[in-house]
Design a protein that fits this description.
Blueprint (H helix, E strand, L loop, with lengths): L9 E6 L3 H11 L11 E7 L3 H7 L7 E3 L2 H5 L6 E4 L6 H10 L3 E4 L7 H14 L3 E3 L7 H11 L6 E9 L16 H4 L4 H15 L3 E10 L4 E3 L5 E3 L5 E10 L2 E10 L8 E8 L2 E6 L5 E7 L3 E7 L18 H16 L12 H20 L3 E2 L5
Parallel strand pairs: 1-2, 1-4, 2-3, 4-5, 5-6, 7-12
Antiparallel strand pairs: 7-13, 8-11, 8-17, 9-10, 11-12, 13-14, 14-15, 15-16
The chain binds nicotinamide-adenine-dinucleotide (NAD).
Nicotinamide-adenine-dinucleotide binds next to helix 1.
Length: 383
């Protein structure tokens, strides 16, 4: 039986009820499946500039405030936490408004359209003492959790190489209409790195890997797309990014490849983590979401395949042999956010921090410089 705390629930509001805002309504809507979880959570308010999306939220039990102006939502006294999922050019204004309204924030990535914004939001959150984390859900998959345990095991031997990737393919279709994620003025000059980058960077940053250098291969593949109104529009963002890096991993320097691609044939939403050492190695991909591959060697060498069950950080009613999916890990991420906010995360994996979001923007700024100069950019040691 669920033993959620009897104390008052955390009252959550969503600003931006598009793709991700509705996923969050789904995750919070079945909060009761968490077992022995210390915090109750209720989605009570939503803001979107599109009235049709507000109407969608009328089907969500408990939502009682519907706003088209985020300032009206933030003026409501009964909101504790705000989740913001809007295009990147709006992050700075809305994130700062949330913080200054006295609310805690679960921000969407990339935490501002560029590095300067990310630093300003981080600094304001620290100045005001607000609890702020950034959305990145893939590390909550059982395969990712197990892969991180191997990375931390100290048993890799000599580190040979690592690869972190997040791959999409729907943009292979040149007739797909443009949207804000394909336009620099909304998405940011980082393009695909702004869009997919935190998914790739969160685990290496949390494992303490330090980037020493970056050589970027950035590609713009389709320069224009249908505008959805019978014409065409410029598609000026970087579509694919392959970053060949030198990283300090477990105290040793090794090649690290970071890949963020919108045009990766056959990949719908593939998150990949691979780390190889001379003694042990690990591979996990959402292509095989219940499979963990682990390398080890004695006289012979093995790649062992483990069938993973529902080994998520926060236990739910779901049976241990079942497979987790995107809605499950989004809920796990929210559980980590609210547990950490309540001081009850313990030794479990936490959401990406503002410091990590700033660090990932530093990587993408270096990648843009590398692309511009067609050379290797050396990163300063982390403070
Ligand atoms: N964590 C993830 O897996 C993941 C996945 C996709 C997108 N994202 C991030 O989520 C954010 C939103 O992306 P999305 O895919 O949900 O976009 P989306 O376009 O589907 O939704 C954005 C919503 O914001 C609304 N909006 C625009 N201006 C607004 C304003 N001033 N006030 C209130 N609402 C406003 C739009 O009407 C739209 O409904 C981005 O930061 C994106 O990078 C994260």
């Amino acid at each position: 039986m669920s033993t959620l705390s009897a104390s008052a629930p955390v009252r959550v509001a969503v600003i931006g009820g598009g793709l991700m805002g509705r996923e969050v309504a789904s995750a919070l809507g079945r909060w009761f499946v968490l077992e022995n979880f210390p915090v109750r959570a209720e989605l009570i308010a939503v803001c979107d500039v599109q009235p049709a999306l507000l109407d969608w939220f009328r089907r969500v039990p408990g939502v009682r405030h519907f706003c088209t102006d985020h300032r009206a939502l933030l003026a409501l006294p009964d909101i504790d936490v705000v989740y913001v999922a809007v295009p990147h050019h709006l992050h700075e204004e809305i994130y700062l408004d949330v913080l200054r309204a006295g609310k805690d924030l679960l921000a969407e990535k990339p935490f501002g359209i560029d590095l300067a914004v990310a630093r300003r939001v981080r600094d304001e959150a620290a100045r005001l003492g607000r609890f702020v984390r950034v959305s990145s859900e893939f590390p909550f998959l059982p395969g990712a959790q197990r892969a991180m345990a191997v990375a931390r095991s100290g048993a890799l031997g000599k580190v040979l190489e690592a690869r972190c990737a997040f791959l999409h393919s729907s943009d292979l279709d040149p007739t797909k209409p443009i949207n804000w994620k394909r336009q620099n003025r909304f998405c940011g000059l980082g393009g695909v790195m702004n869009d997919l980058g935190l998914h790739v960077a969160h685990v290496p940053l949390r494992l303490g890997w330090k980037l020493r250098s970056i050589h970027a291969q950035l590609q713009k593949i389709y320069p224009e797309r249908p505008d959805g109104k019978g014409g065409v529009a410029a598609c000026d963002t970087w579509d694919n990014a392959t970053l060949l890096c030198t990283a300090e991993i477990a105290g040793q320097c090794a090649p690290l490849t970071l890949e963020m691609k919108r045009l990766a044939p056959g990949e719908t939403n593939t998150w990949i983590f691979e780390l190889l050492g001379t003694e042990r190695g690990v591979r996990f991909s959402t292509k095989e979401p219940k499979t963990l591959w682990q390398f080890h060697r004695e006289k012979e060498q093995w790649w062992e395949k483990t069938d993973l069950g529902f080994g998520v950080p926060f236990k739910t009613i779901t049976g241990g042999i079942f497979e987790p999916g995107f809605p499950d890990i989004l809920m796990q991420m929210w559980a980590a956010f609210l547990a950490e906010r309540a001081g009850q995360l313990g030794d479990r994996f936490g959401c990406a921090t503002p410091k990590e979001a700033v660090a990932h923007h530093e990587w993408w700024a270096a990648a843009l410089e590398s692309q511009l100069n067609q050379g290797v950019v050396t990163l300063p040691p982390a403070p």
